[in-house]
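Lab meeting, action items carried over

1. Structure of the five-component assembly. Owner: GW. Status: complete.
Input record:
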Amino acid sequence: MILAAAKLHGPHIDWAALSPIVALLGGAVVALLVGLFRGRAARQVAVPLLSISAFGAAAGLSIWQWSADHDIIAGALRADELAMAINLILCAAGAATVLLSWRSVAPREAAHGEYHALVLTAAAGMAVLVGAQSLVTVFLGYELLSIPLYVLCATEMRRAGSLESGLKYLIVGSVGSATLLYGLAMLYGATGSTDFAAVAAALQAGDLLHDPLLLTGIALALVGIAFKASVAPFHQWTPDVYEGAPTPVTAFMAVATKAAAIGIGLRFFDVALIGAQPDWAPIMAVLAAVTIVVGNVGALGQSSLKRLLAYSGVAQAGYLLGGIVVSSKLGLEAAVFYLVAYLLMNLAAFAVVVARERETAFGDDIASVEGIGRSRPLLAWPMTLAMFGLAGIPATAGFVGKVYLIEALVDGDYTWLGVMIVIGSMISLGYYLKVVAAVWMRPAPEAAGGRPALAGAALDAPEDELPGPRPGGLEVTALAVAFGAGTLVLGVWPTPLFDLARHVGRSLGVL
Amino acid sequence: MDIGWYLAVSAIVFAIGAGGVLTRRNPLVTLLCLELMLNAANLALIAFSRMHGNGDGQVFAIIVMVVAACEVTVGLGVIVAMHRRRLPIDVDELRELHG
Amino acid sequence: MQTLAWLVLILPLAGSLVSALGFRALVRVSPRLPGVVGTVAIAGAFACSIGLLVKLQDLPADGRQVVFSAWDYVVTGGVDARLSILVDPLSVFMALVVTGVSMLIHLYSTTYLLSDRGYARFFSYLNFFVFSMLVLVLAGNFVILVAGWAFVGAASYLLISFWYRRTTATSAGIKAFVINVVGDVGIVLGTYFIFRHSHTLDFLGTFSQADKLPQGSLTAGLILLLVGAFAKSAQIPLHTWLPDAMEGPTPVSALIHAATMVTAGVYLIARMWPLFEQAPGAADVGSAIGLVTLLVAGTIGLVVTDLKRVIAYSTMSQIGYMIMAVSSGVYVGGLFHLMTHAFFKALLFMAAGSIIGAMAGEQSLDRMGGFRRAMPFTFLCFVVGGLCLAGIPPFSGFFSKDEILSFLGDRGGWYWALYAGGYVGALLTAVYTWRMIFRAFFGEPVPEAAELERGHLHHAEVHVNPANGEVEDTDVGFPGPDHHIAERSLPMKVAMGLLAIAATVGGVLQIPFGATDAVDRFLAPTFAGSRMFEGVHPSDGLTLAGMVLGAAIGLLGIAIAYHVWVRRPGTSAAIQARFAGLHRLFVNKWYFDEAIDALLVRPAAWLGRFFAQTFERLVVDGTLVGGTTGVISAASATVRRLQSGFVRAYAALLLVGLVAVSLYFLLQT
Amino acid sequence: MTVHLSILLALPAAGGALGALAGGRAARWWGLAGSLLALAYAIVALVRFHAGDGQQFMTDDMWISAIGVHWKLAIDGLNLGLVVLSTGIFSACTLWATSHDWDNPGLFYFWLGLAHSSVLGALLAQDLLVFVIFFDLMLVPFLFLAGIWSPTPRADRIRAILKLFVYTLVGSLLMLAAAIATAVLNARGGNAISFAFSDLSGTALSKGSQEWIFLFFAAAFLIKMPAFPFHGWMPDGYVNMPMPVVAVFSAVLSKVAAYGFLQIALPLFPQGSQHFQMLLLLIGLASILYGSAMAFTTTNTRLVLGYSSMAQLGFIVLGIFSLDARGAQGALLQAFNHGLVVAPAFFLVALAAARSGGSEDLRDMGGIAFRAPLMATVFLIVALANLAMPGTSNFAGEFLILLGVFKAKIAIALIASVGVVLASAYSLRLLIRAMHNRVGPKVASHEISLRDGLVAVPLVLAIVAIALYPQFALHRSEPAVDGSLSTLPVAVAEAGR
Amino acid sequence: MSAVLFFIAGLGAVAGALGVVFLRNAFYSVLALVCHLLSLAALFLLLDAQFVAAAQVIVYAGAVMVLYVFVVSYVSDASAAMPVGGVGRTTGYLFAVALAAELMIAMLGSGLKAIDSRGAHFAAGFGGPGQIGELLLTKFLFAFEAASFLLLMAAVGAVVLARRRGGVVEEPGRPVLSVMDLIREDNLGSMAEAVNAGHGGER
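Predicted assembly:
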């Protein structure tokens, strides 16, 4: 035995290709350790700065490894343009989250080091998930992103809502991951392998295609991934968790989790399960349609902006699913394009929500943005652009993204799903424009009480511990403006983003 | 015994776990039911591993055990936090967020 | 010649624009200046028309149809409407009548409306009307014809509503306009039917292929054209606007609603003769409607008490003659009657205006009487007009009416019915005309007449709208506070005098038995090739019989009127009581207004209200918008109710989805 | 290849943006300058346009190569008149707006300029997606213009405004899907995907595809017009916009929809158009009758004009779907005419409202003409043009429309002519009840000011000029209209005969 | 022999699972789960997965369940004898049955011959620590490392969630204040605090 162990040769580790993930995980460890320092500056300034640098480093390394296209570490992961592109989205979302958290309640409650370490780990988990090239890695990535998020959701412990959202996410999320796991197990059972390549090869052989074991495995895996992407009817955790979680965490979940889920969806279905495409595509299209309807109608009549954005995120997941359904190069490109647009629009909106949560006593209620068209144009414009972008109004990145998606769907003979996207957009106008109307057309409300009414805040807590109305923060405004401007610029001149999407389109070789 | 028998047990346990999640109000028990579901998957993995005669399934199962432990830890952490916060330990009482 | 032809059009337009745009400057120079400008413009047009006449006579007979085009108006896809005018004897004849009568009426108006605050506006409108009428008669194709047709309608509307502070005037205006638009639409649609086969909108081009047009389309098209003619010429059933149009100032009634515009229908039918001769069915419709109108209008004229409305119904009736004539192929007779009617009817209206001036705006015959001595000139004019209308030789009306009826008689067949009807109408005409004269000028002088005899023109203390008794806002200044009568106003006197002379001697142009046939000869080039024009010539016997009969009937009518309203003043009431039903029918104008109201206006209004109050709310807003939003909000409510907050329910839904998805996949095996 | 149209397109928005940066009182002059410059540019284009030379002043660049979107702008016979119209109307309405002190003027003129640019973009676009983009985009400024500067109380209007925009954007979004489908289906068979009109052809699509795509486009256009029964947004929208804004909205935006039928629906989906001809004719007819009946019933002056526009657009739909060159020519001419008439009509209604104590209800008006003869004259001309009195260009348009319909479906033409009669009734009713009759209780009349005259008189002169010489417009549009009908099966059949 | 063992262990596993769901006291549920886990370990052994079986017993039944027991007793006053969910209980079971049926169909309806066999032949050492270790260090090296990081983060998360902090009510009417609260900065809330590192003092 010992001799055997001595003969053992570890797999070749392509550190370069792995470097973005290493940067994120390393950043997490460093943040955790720096968080132990006593100095206020170390904790409140150095830790966020370190986190941002970790995200920046990961982003830089992703760009460095842009043209990589091979399996790494014994086929556990794959480094290719899709993975790198989604890494970039994750890093942008992560860095933005760090900025939004800068003066927020959540990191103080959870302690800065731990908070940022959890964010970085979740991001790393997402990167793992997107790069996953084996069933085991899929599951691990899935959990590596989920478990830190369960904790992050519950970090604002003074609010019952935060804890509630954490527990709900945990319970429903675990059901989702158990489902995924069972599906993966069945796929393993049917194909005898955990490698995507081997799974795809087994499907290619043909006689498996109508085997109930395989098909049920696909069904369960589909549900598991759809769960993370907030696809109806597996979306119900989304509104509650988004609303209850600290707003920066919500922003991170909304953008990054969705990107990761769609990324693995693309890879898992369009690489490993491409052979069974005729089996899963129709039901996935139906799920997409249901999601579009449920998300959009659910968002109507919401008064909490976070909840509204949550439902909106559900609907957007439905749109994005279209990119997977068609299993084409165009679909892949469109999905990636839309993810970037989605990142810009959502983060702009969440930045405004964060700023107004701090500035007013209305929390994330829609009343908090009323009348900011006059008083805070630098917040009003990004919010407006974000809403227009999400609704698919022209001259925003969201519009171009939708065009791209619909084009992919029509091209893939799923025209009806394209029309569903359009119908969804129609319904969505009902709530996006409501926000725009609140921003520009309603007068600023009379301040209701002097302090932000953080739901469930303990009333007997010392005065100075509860943040009163305070400036939203320069960094939050800057973030909103930057992402709002990005929405606009990429709506008018989307070619750079198209170039990126086309690069990614080359990655999944099977297509 | 044929592998199929093991798989049948696995399926039953998975369903029982799922049923437990649907019916139990105590989050602690809900966590236990989640463990049941993961263990059912583990049983399936090991059965398949035996079926194919390769070790991938077993390694997968070990990893699942790690994950299960992590989930339990965090889940219990949340429950403890809720208990400290004097929130009811009852999933049906967690209804502040809805609609 | 081309220059003259365009000048005929341009001068009135220029006059109109000068008055309209420069009214402040003009009035500043002299309050009368707008009137002078207007009159001079029309006089210029009249002069140009005469010039045109002379030039036309210089051309060879077969070359007297000249088309001048200014520019392309609508030329696309086979439509060939150019801004073109057709100068031929018929159009020049009409232009002469129009400009001549207009000139006199402008002259009359310079004093008649002098105190009116809308003096400049009035002349602007009036000049615009003349311009429009000239466009109508000079039009060289259907599109320009329709344009002129509608312009006169608009001018008529403007003038009817001239005193726009009166709701009666504005509602009369809108009524006239809408009915005239019905006519316009008729002409447009008729044009389509003809254009469909002729592929040209040009008159001469269309006429040249008249015999090639299919009968069905042609008849349909011509009947639609007749709708236009009826609307403009106040023929049944599109006549109801004309009596109401008397809301306009009296010169307007004289010019537009007696002499010129309302005869446009006659002109149209005469102009379209090549087509009508190919479609006798359509022509017969025209004849029949003409007859019905002339009789119905005559009966109403017997009982109406508003002075101007009596003349208005008389106009309807006389136009009935003309329509009947031109529809039956008696073109020259119809047009000759058009001319003489223009003279004497304008005269009658002017005279009526003079009396109304003396009555300070009051128009009811019931309040008038005994003006004979107070207003001798007016009386004289009235008598001349009355004699013309009644068809007493040697006044012009005698010859023109007689020509129509004898030609009808000559055609035989069912035209005998028209012939007989025409004489019945003549009797009615004589009776109601002289009823009017006897009631206004005979009997005891009313206080206003007595006041005038004492040398003072009556002036009302309070101005009221004669139509509904509503008190007028005096600060507004229209109708003007002062009134004018012919006896005291030279321009009015001149205008009326000239017209009276024309009405008296106009008949010499066309005396039967070959004595004179100036009109006939002049118009011949236009009607060259017509079966009716060249083929129908009444025998001398028929002509003579007709003349005797006509004169006798005219005298009989005057005698009856004298008996009823002068010798035995109570007779009228006795007859009313004896024939109460008939009287009620006549007084209510054969219930045409009521019928149109019940059949068209009220259903339309009800529909409008239904749309506005019910349909819009229930269907457009309720079902279409509300239905969609309702479904969506119901879905929204469902989604949000499912989002109950129970985490177990979420897990349950997840499992339901899982079971469903798995089932789908299992079904794929 | 010129850059002129891009400049034309950018001028109003640039003016508005500079105005927004300048803020305060200066904003209005920047906004006005942008509009007027665009107008001048458009007039130069009009003068230098040669009928029969096809598309002119072409700008053609690749915009988004990945999905085949070209930045392609051109003026042809179809859009020439409407470009001039929209620059003219926008200039007039901007001038009109300058006489009013708007809250936050920089933003106001920015949105107005952006609206102007978007409309121009939709008209000039020679690329399907660019058209769709601007077609959608041109609504956005109106959302703000109506929402922020609406005359109605805040509480009531937001719902109404949201209804308006959701409703109208619904149509546009359907069109988006249809446009993409058109391009993708055209690209089947190996061609690179492209949205440029010149790369799309009416024959590449199967009849089935054409039918649904046509329906989507038709829905967008009919809603934007609006046509019965898709006008549910119209009352809310019209009541809740500031007057200058509702004037441009009514005068210009609905025309873009009519233009879309001619530029896109007919040439690209000939079989679809043919298949749904009767449906569209019936919709047009219903719009005419319903709009007229409503215009005759309502007492809100804005809605009188709104429903009257609906009826007029019914005629335009009829003309287009006569699928006959004359009808289409008439429709295009009528689109121009209606824009030219309805903007001053709104202006006059606003002036009348200002003279009757701010009330826009006919019942509160009356007798305004007496102290304002010039205004009365202008009102009269506008009313007569609105009812398409023969001799006006509106008549020329209706004449051609009805002629085209007459050729296609006699019965429809006969019924539609009822609309002509009704038009006279409601137009005169508006004129009389506003300007004539007894003086209303709160009416304090006075003549229009010089600045008001600057807005109204050029428009009225334009109405008169085009009335005298409609051929000016017809001549320039004829080749293009023939071109857009040339792919229709009827036209093809006729040409073969 | 193996059949008998299978039935005993299988029944134990299912019974344990049912016990978890149906026992009303959370404490008994935990014990039922332990029973289930042990049965499962036996099944693993029957499937020649000795290492996993061992790990199951040690890690799961041994460590994790102990944690459970502690937490159950910690919160027991609040959660003792909580009724099984009333609402939707029957439907919950129905779904479970439907799910079980579907999974059974999938598993047993599979056309794979191997399912109806006792499994493939395998090399010596299958399921033993050597083979598992080799796989973990070669093919599944990344998974192994990532799992370890996951454990770290779970620990961090648990600390973040479960540590005591000021401002959050601990006991009714008794604010949590101690000497340490005066020394340390407010809401420091780090792991350091949780383990009292650097302070060493008692709370």
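2. GW to write a short summary for the group page. Key points so far: The mean pLDDT of chain C is 85. Strands of chain C lie at 66-76, 79-87, 510-511, 516-517.
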